[in-house]
Write a structure and sequence with these properties.
With 403 residues, the protein is α/β, with parallel strands linked by helices. 34% of the residues lie in helices and 10% in strands. The chain has one domain: Arginase, Chain A, CATH 3.40.800.20. The longest helix is centred in the first third of the chain and has 21 residues.
Length: 403
Amino acid sequence: MTFLPGLSQPAPPTMVVWNSAMTAYNFGLGHPMAPARLDLTARLARSLGLLDLAHVFVEAPEVASDAELETVHSPEFVAAVRRVSDDPTSPDEARGLGTDDDPAFAGMHDAAARLAGGSLAAASAILDGSALHAVNFGGGLHHAARDRASGFCIYNDSALAVQRLLDGGISRVAYIDVDAHHGDGTESIFWDDPRVLTISLHESGLTLFPGTGFANEIGGPQAEGSAVNVALPSGTGDAGWLRAFHAVVPQLVGAFQPEVIVSQHGCDSHRLDPLAHLNISVDGQREAATAVGNLAARHCEGRWIATGGGGYSVTDVVPRSWSHLIAIAAGRPVPLRTPVPEDWRTYVSDKFGMDTPGLMGDDVELWWRSWEVGFDPNDAVDRTVMATRKAVFPLHGLDPWFD
């Protein structure tokens, strides 16, 4: 077990959702959404000692009931998932079931509903006070819409967690999504709900699925400004990504004053990811998770639910990035130059025949320009940021040029 240095602040009671049954969410051999990503994350987190901390408890998720799923999904869609799950030879492509992205498989309903149940349990733990922070790294399935599966996502667990919080008496929830892909499903579910602020920082839809998520997508007529999109140019690296995050997210969260933050930490923004075109490091992803946790501490009395999401560099990136997420949520961050435990590296080598990184970070120099130093109209990232700020900042009483 790796020694984790203690911190001066009290450790937050932290739930981590995990059980090997979660790997049943399996679209088949060769599909990018390999269930090994979850198993390897749990193994690395345990090797680092994170799951054995006294204030961390591991919760096995239950399969969400139809009534629970129908708080954000239509009854017709849930019934369709059940039908296709029982008979994968009869797909329902109109609802996104049995497509190349979301192949039908036996047991699909229970597998997807179990991941959803994990985020529902996280929300319940926040509501009853048994946890201050909760992590469901098997969740974050943000493309699923009310009536349709999409982009490897059947049920939208993040939206279900947000809805449970609202139904439990929470007045305002901020949803922050840093996946490489636009969080379109979650945004669409709360498009007309001013109680939910959805912020998505992603690669531009001009170059990446799902082709949406531009600055002018700001929410429905009764909820203008509740949807926020930062569509970053292909190739954006740590400096631009973190500049954009810090130029948009803290200001809007501060103005909105949520009671809970729900975040999605897809790590397909990494430079090694095979499906996206951003150039982010594990170090940058860790920095973003730290920033989200700090926002929860500042504005929500610490209440924070973090989910996983995309990420298809299965051995080199996903387990490290999400282990950092767990560590940050647990208040025991793992230093970037911490060696990756040898027992975990040996397991990956034996099972997959692959070498893995030796350190928990990518050993990069993290630096970004603060927005306060000024707007550069010749910089593509700055133009993206300014488009978003102009579209939504005035709707929150903020000045797009100075706040």
